[in-house]
Specification:
Blueprint (H helix, E strand, L loop, with lengths): L1 H4 L2 H16 L8 H9 L13 H11 L2 H47 L2 H62 L2 H18 L5 H22 L6 H13 L4 H17 L5 H7 L6 H6 L4 H23 L4 H9 L14 H8 L6 H21 L5 H40 L7 H27 L4 H32 L23 H29 L16 H36 L14 H20 L23 H6 L4 H18 L13 H21 L5 H21 L3 H17 L9 H18 L5
Length: 793
């Protein structure tokens, strides 16, 4: 029971101590961990230490424990002693079994080694017998072996002599068959003999061989510098001449010049690039047949040039720097500034044309293949790194050219309206121009994004490395594009005279003065860009062109749609106000001419509505026609049929019937007094409100501004009675048609009344027309208008 209460760790430690004390008579060899732990304990477990004192332990136990505890401790110690005895007994039995097993093993080893010594002695005797017989055979065959070896050396010498005598004939056969490599091999093999015996025994053979080799050297030089021979053939000829110890410096310079000349044939000019381009419809056919004629021919030429570089490098190991400079000329300008252009410079010229991404990818794939072929034979030139830098420039120019063409297409759709309107071709309506411009902006932007997405999704290694840069270029390109588009809109509207003509993107056309319809198209197009185009473009960029990071996070995001929306929101409002101002100024010039031309002090009695009223209504009709094509309809507000204080209505009422009996002077003064009182007690009317993107709002604003201009022109003149009555007649006729096209009739009534009041204030004798006369003149004008413009059923 006492053993079970002891923790497992303490039991294991005690077992280890017991085994240590059993096998080690020296107490100092016991476990240091146990010694250190025992020295630290002050409990009753000190009985296990080597310095245990029985008397002290018993005294301490008797002092601290009662009788029951002493009996319990006695039982525990008895159980522990029994367990320890059992463990020691089991340990002794296990060790005894191991000693028995070891003894059996030693016995078996002794029994197996007993016959081995005799076998080894027999083997040694056989080896000595074989050795003695081998020595006997060697002794008996020694003389014959020496004789055979002597005969073999003689036979080899005779073969060499025969080869020397046959060498001139062999060289002649090689010359006929143009097997110059065999001829050089034969001659270089015979050179040691010619050097040793050429002046004595083999003098004739040496002379004939040298004559044949002179012919071979001449032919090899001809092949080396022949334009009809391939580069590989000329390189092989150089190798053979080098084996013949021919002076190689001149050959090195001449062969390098040949390589430089052949390099000019590897360049892709614009015409070859066009031929190498792939139509998108034939893309599957091109992929199934990669060996198309232009690309396959060019690749074969580059492979031949690469092999020539490899051979040249083998022939001239010290020409690495010159070969590096020459090979770098394949993809970029020569470092020394030579006059011939390289692949990526050809692309820079190529992207200036209108090309698609498929064509660009095809050309880049051809160039990257050239780079890899050259890199295999001359990796020290680091052509992939040079190509990467050159490709960055080419891709940047392609992106810039693409956005430039997009801006040019949008400009064409807008300036086409301008040209058509100036030429008087009305069939090309503003609505058609607006739809074409919307399509050019939205569909053109989507096509551009699709074009760029094909580039970044291509698995060409060159483009994979440039993907972050391309994403940044696309985002920056759209940001700059919309900024340039805003500037171009301003140029077309005539509001930025400081912009140079080359930024107009209209070849041969100077946008000197924009017409009002184009400005209205620009206003609505700006709203479309803000509300429709920018969200869709932003969504596409977020889906396909996220990431990037090549420009650095410290520069902020490349594409900021919020800023673009703010720019075009402001531009739309600006163009809408500009349109209103342009229409107002045009009508104001008409009004100014009307009021500054006649002498109002000597004006005759009014007989009809003046013709300026027709012109005024025609201008308003033209304005309404334009806004109906571009702007949506709005809700009409503040529609009221009464003039809310107008005293010059042609309708009769009891008050005016009573006034007819008065004298003319009293009636005029009474009407003026009523008008002023009506102005005092009339509710405050807000005349100028914010211009909305609706038909009614724009037309109403134009009418308000024109009536205010009319009011100011009236204030600058002095009228007699007839002039005042003419103004009264014209304004009264305008009241009905103008109120039909505006959304705020109360304001229009107020402004028309103000014109009549101001005219009465500037009149020397402000006596208005009688209502019957006013009605008769207005009806006559309406009848005349109906006769001039009959309504067809």
């Amino acid at each position: 029971m006492g053993v079970d209460d002891v923790p497992l760790d303490d039991k294991a430690k005690r077992m280890r101590d017991l085994l240590s004390s059993f096998y080690s008579p020296d107490p100092s060899m016991s476990s240091p961990d146990t010694t250190s732990s025992s020295s630290k304990r002050t409990t009753l477990d000190d009985i296990n230490s080597s310095s245990f004192d029985p008397d002290q332990y018993m005294n301490l136990l008797v002092q601290k424990s009662n009788l029951e505890r002493l009996l319990q401790r006695h039982v525990e110690m008895a159980a522990e002693i029994k367990n320890l005895d059992t463990d020691l007994q089991m340990l002794v039995y296990e060790n005894y079994n191991k000693f028995i097993s070891a003894t059996d093993t030693i016995k078996r080893m002794n029994s197996n080694i007993v016959g081995m010594e005799s076998n080894m002695e027999q083997l040694l005797e056989k080896i000595m017998s074989v050795q003695s017989r081998s020595d006997g055979v060697n002794t008996s065959l020694f003389e014959k072996r020496e004789h055979v070896e002597k005969l073999h050396r003689t036979r080899n010498l005779l073969r060499k002599v025969q080869f020397i005598y046959d060498l001139p004939a062999r060289l002649g056969k090689c010359i006929k068959s143009e097997a110059y490599a065999d001829a050089v091999r034969f001659y270089t093999g015979a050179m040691p003999i010619f050097k040793a015996y050429g002046d004595s025994s083999f003098q004739d053979c040496k002379r004939a061989s040298e004559e044949a080799m002179a012919i071979i050297i001449k032919n090899l030089e001809g092949k080396l510098f022949s334009d009809s021979e391939s580069i590989q053939t000329r390189a092989e000829a150089a190798v053979l001449l080098k084996k013949l110890d021919f002076p190689m410096e001149s050959l090195k310079a001449r062969l390098l010049d040949k390589l430089a000349q052949s390099l000019a044939d590897l360049q892709l000019n614009t015409e070859e690039i066009s031929n190498a381009s792939v139509d998108p419809k034939d893309l599957s056919q091109e992929e199934s047949n990669p060996g198309s004629a232009p690309a396959a021919t060019h690749e074969a030429s580059v492979r031949e040039f690469a092999e020539a570089i490899r051979a040249y490098r083998i022939i001239f190991p010290d020409s690495e720097s010159q070969l590096i400079k020459l090979s770098q000329g394949v993809v970029t300008k020569n470092v020394t500034g030579s006059c011939f252009f390289r692949h990526f410079e050809a692309i820079e010229e190529y992207v200036k044309k209108r090309i698609c991404s498929t064509e660009l990818l095809h050309v880049l794939r051809i160039i990257w293949t050239d780079v890899l072929l050259m890199d295999e034979v001359l990796d020290e030139a680091a052509l992939p790194n040079y190509s990467l830098e050159a490709a960055k420039v080419a891709v940047k120019q392609y992106v810039a050219s693409t956005f430039s063409r997009l801006l040019h297409d949008i400009s064409d759709s807008l300036t086409r309206v301008h040209v058509k309107q100036k030429e008087g071709m009305r069939e090309y309506s503003l609505q058609t121009a607006l739809e074409a411009s919307k399509k050019a902006v939205l569909q053109g932007s989507m096509d551009v994004l699709l074009d760029f997405r094909q580039i970044i999704e291509d698995n060409l290694e060159l483009l994979v490395q440039l993907k972050p840069l391309i994403i940044d270029l696309v985002q920056e390109g759209f940001q700059d594009f919309f900024g340039a588009l805003d500037d171009h809109f301003l140029l077309l509207s005539g509001g930025n005279n400081s912009v140079s003509q080359d930024q107009g993107f209209v070849e041969g056309t100077q946008v000197d003065k924009a017409f009002a319809g184009l400005v209205l198209v620009l206003a609505q197009l700006s709203v479309f860009i803000e509300q429709t185009a920018i969200p869709k473009i932003t969504e596409e960029i977020a889906a396909s062109f996220s990431g990037g990071g090549a420009r650095g996070y410290e520069h902020g995001p490349a594409f900021v749609p919020g800023e673009i929306c703010r720019i075009f929101r402001s531009a739309g409002e600006k163009f809408l106000h500009l349109y209103v101002n342009m229409r107002t100024q045009r009508i104001s010039l008409l009004l100014k001419k009307r009021f500054t031309t006649p002498n109002w002090v000597k004006h005759k009695e009014p007989r009809e509505v003046h013709m300026f009223v027709d012109l005024f209504l025609q201008e308003l009709e033209a304005t309404g026609c334009e806004v109906k094509q571009i702007l949506p309809e709005g809700l009409r507000r503040h529609r009221r049929n009464d003039s809310n204080g107008s005293t010059n209505s042609s309708r009769s009422n009891p008050l005016r019937e009573e006034k007819l009996s008065r004298s003319s002077t009293q009636r005029a003064r009474s009407q003026l007094l009523e008008t002023h009182l009506a102005k005092l007690f009339k509710q405050k009317i807000e005349i100028f409100t914010k211009v909305e993107y609706t038909q009614e709002s724009v037309v109403t604003t134009v009418v308000k501004l024109c009536l205010k201009s009319l009011q100011e022109f009236v204030r600058l003149q002095t009228f007699n009675r007839s002039g005042f009555q003419q103004i009264q007649l014209d304004i009264q006729f305008l009241r009905t048609p103008v109120k039909e096209i505006v959304e705020d009739q109360a304001v229009i009534d107020f402004l028309l009344d103000e014109v009549i009041v101001n005219a009465s204030e500037r009149c020397l004798d402000p006596i208005p027309l009688e209502p019957p006369i006013l009605d008769r003149l207005i009806q006559a004008k309406l009848a005349k208008t109906r006769d001039q413009n009959p309504v067809t059923p």
